[in-house]
Amino acid sequence: MSELWPVIHTYTRQQAIEDGVLVELSNAGEAGIPWPTAITAAARNEAIAWEETNRALQDEVGRAWDVLVCIRFALARQPREQLLEHRIPVTVLRVPNTPRATTARALQLVAYVGPGDAGEAVVTVMLPDED
Q1: Sequence-separated (6 or more) residues with CB below 8 Å from residue 96
Q2: In angstroms, rounded to a whole number, what is the distance separating the alpha carbons of residues 77 and 86?
Q3: Residues above pLDDT 90, as percent of the chain
Q4: Where exactly are the structural domains of the chain?
């Protein structure tokens, strides 16, 4: 497409990570996800962020691990030909990040396996209304 139209602006995945728009989930490999994985800031706020003053005994490391495991299983359920460049639904049960919340609720996320900055496979986790 750049041959037909001049590129006005590019924004790389690495720039999005540096800007905080995406947050790397560095232990994705430990969870069985073979590709670099990042989550959008909005999805992170819903699924992983945790205020230490909330009653339920949770932390962000454990919540991130839960998200990664749910992603691994969602990816494993997909036929290989439907992994790349498809929005794969992921359901995470998580306690809302609000005072006095103790009951887990379902949160819908989407995992997208697509090309990274150098064309390599990467996973981006987002809320269903994000792209």
Answers
A1: 105
A2: 13
A3: 71
A4: 13-126
Residue showing tokens 């205020």: 51
DSSP string of 40-52? EHHHHHHHT---T
Tokens of 61: 């490391």
Which residues, in sequence order, are bridge partners of residue 118?
none
SS3 75: helix
Distant-in-sequence, close-in-space partners of 63: CB < 8 Å, separation ≥ 6: 47, 48, 49, 50, 94
Report the 10 Å Cβ neighbour count for 28.
23
DSSP string, 85-131: T-EEEEEEEE--SSTT--S-EEEEEEEEEEE-TTS-EEEEEE-TT--
Q: What is the pLDDT of residues 64-111, one digit of tens each?
A: 999 999 999 999 998 888 788 889 999 999 998 888 888 999 999 999
Question: Is the pTM for the entire model greater than 0.85?
Answer: yes
> What's the mean pLDDT when you consider all of the chain?
91
